[in-house]
Write a structure and sequence with these properties.
The complex is a heterodimer of chains A (306) and B (515). Chain A has 306 residues and is mainly alpha-helical. Chain A has 13 helices and no strands. Chain A is flat, with a radius of gyration of 24 Å. Chain B contains 15 helices and 21 strands. In chain B, helix 13 (418-425) packs antiparallel against helix 14 (443-454). The chains are: A mainly alpha (306), B alpha+beta (515). At the A-B interface, helix 2, helix 3, helix 5, helix 7 and helix 12 of A face helix 6, helix 12 and strand 16 of B.
């Protein structure tokens, strides 16, 4: 197991190299110049020239790429063109925030999704099942920014229960976490239901029931644990997406997360920021996938990694 | 005795009259949350390039001379000034008893450091305000400075009042170095506390402010990108002031009894640039026809619902040096006639570009223009681009530049006509060196700009300024359309908000929050 994990972590290196190469070339292929953008309509040519020089944008692309990689290896992600902060500092601030939001969100999504999914599967075609599956359809189809604005309109403007966006205490995170988690909880609920329905019909469940085990134990211990593999896959993917930044939620609720850092970086052609956040997001995704794989082994002892 | 009694009564009445109104009206204390549309980019005034930066800097920094709300120049950190007869030397008498936030005294030395940084080897991004004009700075005594110019410059005071000319503590400049871009240290009524990128910037009251302590305790400027989110924050009370209100939300906010809306005419003229390097736009008759073909009144009335003003030329009415010129009325028949004279009786095909979301209703306006041009036979394809790509595409040198008609806005940050006419239309300012994206070139015009810039008397300056603006309208290197208005909204309890025509919203020491 230890060797397996080490191997997977080493695999990160080629992935990151690929990600950095692709993001670097894409960024530079898009027209637009960070210095011109910063200066706006009334650009000062001397300033543009000086900024290009300062950030090495006047050098050939391969030189720029090599410069970037050789500094990243030493842990230096460069300085933001837009606000002159070290990229590493921006990434740290934003990522800590994104982790908080993602955890709360996946917690909400996971608990709602799992519970709804299990109940739906045990009471197939009941009123609850139908309602929750229609709800799940809603959750998946609803545009997140629209749902976010609705939540804000109702809970902040009308009821004044929660603040209308911004960073602060946990209270500030409730609405965004619900908005962000809505789609995930829907996916998790549907996946749990489907997987449970399959497991419940297995022989060993019948055996467990025949042995006189309580229905609760049968469902939550024997059935759910075996139904978890596909659910965990979805869980991991959803969590990975959340950690990669939730641009829309962050924009609607004015939250400083990784997603907005990256997208605003793209609009401002803030190359160091975009490249740094791409690497961060890629790393998180790979690590979350690894954790998911490890979790498989926990839920299903048949799965072994050598 | 009786007179004494009457006097005493009168005094008592006056006293009673004064005290309650004073204490009812201006209350000290309170925190204001200000929701801005974007994050500041830089807190170093000399390198700040965006409105959110300038707005916060205006609360922490002060200038030698400043703009009043109507953009007149009034004393700031200098109490008075004189210009020598030849226009080559300016003497400034500085305010005494002013301290920077770090305790450094404000004096002639600080002003000298400011000018020398602007014209020195460091080259801040706004160095262009001074490098072409300032030769040297002399300290006469602790509170008197003399600035020697290279050439007379009519709008020198406007440059001093520009946001970039906020005076920084010389001690902070030395100790912080480049970090001055992320922490501010000026003489303003509010002091810098912290800046969390993408989230908020906090300022607190400067208790040592020379003009008297500010009423507000604290200002939190939040970055709220999403337009509707800003509106909701104002309605829910999470913010006391918001800027850049989308026009769809205005009617709803107007009905809210707790909210006040304020719409100010700005310095921003929206126009459609014409690439004068390309045929058929090299012909002045074609350019005039384009101007006759656009119904600006209709655009202002139906598209902007009156929240804009028709503009005859490129200089907005509030800019120093504005002259009322006769523009182009809507006259499609005349447009057709001019096109026929120029050899295009059936019109022609053209490309029209517009950004989307950069200026209020920009793309919608381009659509209206497209329809109106079609009526005189000019068939335009309308394209939009993401802003960075748009700037890049319109900045290409003439031979590679594919633009034909392109919507843009221009607002002179110095609030005077030169910083419109010079960068946008003189020959030496062709892109990519300058900002003349139209590749307009006219020797007579260049000459007039040069003359009013170097003028030493107001009469002389006005003569050339007026001539330049008239010539420009006649030559029509752009379709001049409208001047925008900026609408902000705030809680009715907030008093004394400054909504400057420079598209900057900020507070001063007299702004207060009713309890």
């Amino acid at each position: 197991m230890g060797r397996y994990i080490l191997k997977r972590i080493l695999m990160l290196l080629p992935v990151l190299l690929g990600v950095s190469l692709v993001s670097f070339s894409l960024l530079h292929m898009v027209p637009g110049d960070p210095a011109v953008l910063l200066a706006g309509e009334d650009a000062n040519p001397d300033f543009i020239k000086a900024l290009r020089k300062e950030y090495g944008l006047d050098k050939p692309l391969y030189v720029q790429y090599f410069h970037f990689i050789s500094h990243v290896v030493r842990g230096d992600f460069g300085i933001s063109i837009r606000n002159r902060e070290p990229v590493i500092k921006l990434l740290k601030e934003r990522f800590l925030f994104t982790i908080q939001l993602s955890f709360l969100s996946i917690l909400i999504a996971g608990s709602i999704g799992l519970i709804a999914g299990v109940i739906s599967s045990t009471k197939q075609y009941s009123l609850f099942d139908n309602l929750s599956m229609v709800g799940a359809l809603f959750g998946i189809s609803m545009p997140i920014f629209w749902f976010g604005l609705l939540l804000m309109l109702f809970f902040s403007v009308q009821l004044r229960w929660f603040p209308a966006g911004g960073k602060g205490t946990i209270v500030h995170l409730v609405l965004p976490a619900i908005a962000l988690g809505a789609a995930s909880s829907a996916v998790i609920a549907r996946m749990t239901r489907a997987s449970m329905l399959e497991v419940i019909r297995q022989d060993y469940i019948r055996t467990a029931r025949a042995n006189g085990l309580r229905e609760f134990i049968v469902i939550y211990k024997h059935a759910l644990k075996n139904a978890m593999i596909p659910v965990i896959t979805v869980f991991g993917l959803e969590f990975g997406y959340m950690l990669g930044g939730a641009v829309l939620t962050e924009t609607v609720f004015s939250l400083p997360g990784v997603g907005r850092l990256m997208v605003e970086g793209i609009f401002q052609r803030d190359y160091p920021v975009v490249q740094g956040s791409m690497l961060l997001v890629a790393t998180t995704f790979v690590l979350v996938n690894l954790l998911t794989d490890i979790a498989y082994a926990f839920f299903d002892p048949k799965i072994r990694y050598e | 005795m009786k007179r004494m009694f009457v006097l005493a009564i009168l005094m008592l009445i006056t006293f009673l009259f004064f005290i309650p109104t004073q204490s009812l009206a201006q209350v000290s204390g309170g925190t204001v949350t200000y929701a801005a549309g974007a994050d500041p980019d830089n807190l170093d005034p000399a390198n700040a390039e965006s409105n959110p930066s300038e707005a916060v800097n205006r609360m922490m920094y002060e200038n030698i001379a400043k703009f009043d709300p109507k953009l007149k120049i009034v004393p700031g950190l200098a109490t008075k000034w004189e210009q020598s007869k030849d226009g080559m030397t300016w003497t400034f008498y500085l305010r005494k008893g002013v301290k920077f936030h770090d305790g450094t005294p404000f004096n002639a030395e600080a002003v000298k450091v400011f000018f020398e940084r602007m014209i020195g080897p460091e080259k801040p991004s706004r160095a262009g305000l001074y490098v072409p004009f300032v030769n040297s700075v002399e300290i006469v005594d602790d509170y008197t400075v003399k600035i020697n110019l290279k050439t007379p410059f009519a709008f020198f005071l406007n440059n001093l009042a520009h946001s970039a000319s906020g005076i920084i503590s010389p001690t902070a400049l030395k100790t912080l170095g480049k970090d001055i871009s992320r922490r501010a240290c000026g003489t303003g009524p509010f002091k810098f506390v912290e800046w969390v990128h993408g989230d908020h910037l906090t300022m607190v009251r400067n208790d040592d402010y020379w003009g008297g302590k500010a009423y507000l305790d604290k200002i939190v400027v939040k970055t709220v990108k999403e337009d509707s989110a800003r509106v909701m924050m104002l309605q829910s009370g999470d913010a006391q002031l918001i800027v850049r209100i989308p026009s769809e939300d205005i009617p709803r906010l107007e009905k809210d009894p707790n909210i006040k809306l304020d719409s100010t005419e700005t310095l921003r003229v929206l126009y459609i640039g014409i690439n004068c390097f390309k045929k058929p736009f090299t012909d002045v008759r074609v350019r005039q026809a384009l101007n006759y073909a656009v119904d600006k009144e209709a655009i202002v009335k139906s598209l902007y619902q009156g929240r804009a003003l028709v503009s005859a030329g490129i200089v907005p009415p509030l800019a120093t040096g504005f002259f009322s010129v006769k523009g182009y009325p809507y006259d499609p028949e005349k447009a057709k006639k001019l096109l026929a004279e120029a050899g295009y009786p059936k019109g022609f095909k053209a490309k029209l570009w517009s950004p989307q979301g950069r200026y209020p209703k920009d793309f919608e306006m381009a659509q209206a223009v497209q329809q109106q041009l079609k009526k005189v036979g000019i068939d335009c394809t309308l394209d939009t681009m993401e802003w960075a790509a748009y700037l890049a595409a319109t900045r290409k040198p003439p031979e590679e530049n594919e633009s034909e008609l392109f919507l843009l806005g221009w607002a002179p940050s110095t609030a005077e006509a030169r910083w419109i006419l010079y960068p946008l239309y003189t020959t030496e300012q062709w892109v990519p060196q300058g900002n003349n994206r139209s590749f307009y070139s006219n020797k007579e015009f260049d000459d007039l700009v040069n003359k009013f810039t170097r003028a030493t008397s107001k009469a002389e300056m006005d003569k050339y300024l007026k001539a330049a603006q008239e010539l420009l309208v006649k030559e029509a290197p752009s379709i001049f359309i409208l001047v925008t208005k900026e609408t902000i909204g705030y809680s009715k309890k907030l008093q004394g908000v400054i909504n400057s025509p420079l598209e900057l919203t900020y507070f001063d020491h007299k702004t207060y929050l009713e309890k």
